[in-house]
């Protein structure tokens, strides 16, 4: 069993301020990965790993929190043929075996926000979900031109459809990127703070963009154990309703000083 104190103290990695061109750099992107546009970000810190099942379990134990999957109609899981909502599925039962070191899944956007409020109290920092720009800048080792997080060699850095099997793998087993971050490509999708806007890349401000001011869907990034190599590129974007939960979707914190 993992030491819960170590699990919840999730190591935070400093990401220096800087500028980069956000969007696909390899000519392989979908329409919403363009146009490439200049973005400049202030310094922030981001968790070395996605939030693990062990850390989420401590949050639940201390607060009595019940996720949207547990209060509602479950979580989408893959039954070997198709993705289906299973009313019995939740972060505790995602359809495959996990231990404390696996990334937590089956968490809705609001579940992630609730965890981060608790995590902020534990750390004394201001903690939240990363903006989409912060996520991509961090995934690309501080804005470098990389197809996957830390490398153009997908198998070196990512768990995905060709090598993961039928579910998540323990966080931190593949090579980290240039900032020391693990699992930014593959293993689990990660919620961001941003609403999705189809034209936002055309309208995005340069400095610290935070996405549209409102919307219907929230963005998540990074791909998962289920996706092919094209779907785990650092510029690839996906989105869904904030109440969505899936056995391939988790999150990680960004924190700053209060």
From TrEMBL:
InterPro entries: CTDL_fold, Sulfatase_Mod_Factor_Kinase, SUMF_dom, SUMF_sf. Residues 11-254 form the Sulfatase-modifying factor enzyme-like domain. One of its GO terms (molecular function) is formylglycine-generating oxidase activity. It comes from the Bacteria. Gene3D superfamilies: paralog of FGE (formylglycine-generating enzyme). Pfam families: FGE-sulfatase. PANTHER family: FORMYLGLYCINE-GENERATING ENZYME, SULFATASE MODIFYING FACTOR 1, 2. This is Formylglycine-generating enzyme family protein. It comes from Geoanaerobacter pelophilus.
């Amino acid at each position: 069993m993992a030491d819960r104190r170590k699990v919840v103290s999730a190591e935070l990695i400093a990401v220096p301020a800087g500028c980069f061109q956000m969007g696909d750099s390899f000519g392989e992107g979908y329409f919403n990965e363009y146009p490439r546009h200049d973005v400049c970000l202030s310094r922030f810190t981001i968790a070395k790993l996605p939030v693990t099942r062990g850390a989420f379990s401590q949050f639940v134990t201390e607060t009595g929190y019940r996720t949207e999957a547990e209060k509602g109609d479950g979580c989408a899981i893959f039954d070997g043929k198709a993705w289906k909502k299973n009313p019995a599925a939740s972060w505790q039962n995602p359809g495959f075996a996990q231990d404390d070191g696996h990334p937590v899944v089956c968490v809705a956007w609001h579940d992630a926000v609730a965890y981060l409020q608790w995590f902020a109290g534990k750390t004394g920092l201001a903690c939240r979900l990363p903006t989409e720009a912060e996520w991509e800048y961090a995934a690309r080792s501080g804005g470098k031109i990389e197809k996957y997080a830390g490398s153009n060699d997908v198998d070196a850095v990512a768990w995905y459809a060709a090598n993961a099997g039928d579910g998540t793998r323990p966080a931190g087993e593949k090579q980290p990127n240039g900032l020391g971050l693990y699992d930014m490509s593959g293993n689990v999708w990660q919620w961001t703070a941003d609403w999705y806007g189809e034209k936002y890349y055309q309208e995005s401000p340069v400095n610290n963009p935070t996405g549209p001011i409102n919307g219907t869907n929230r963005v998540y990034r990074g791909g998962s154990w289920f996706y092919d190599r094209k779907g785990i590129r650092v510029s690839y974007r996906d989105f869904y309703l904030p109440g969505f939960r899936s056995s391939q979707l988790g999150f990680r914190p960004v924190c700053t000083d209060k």
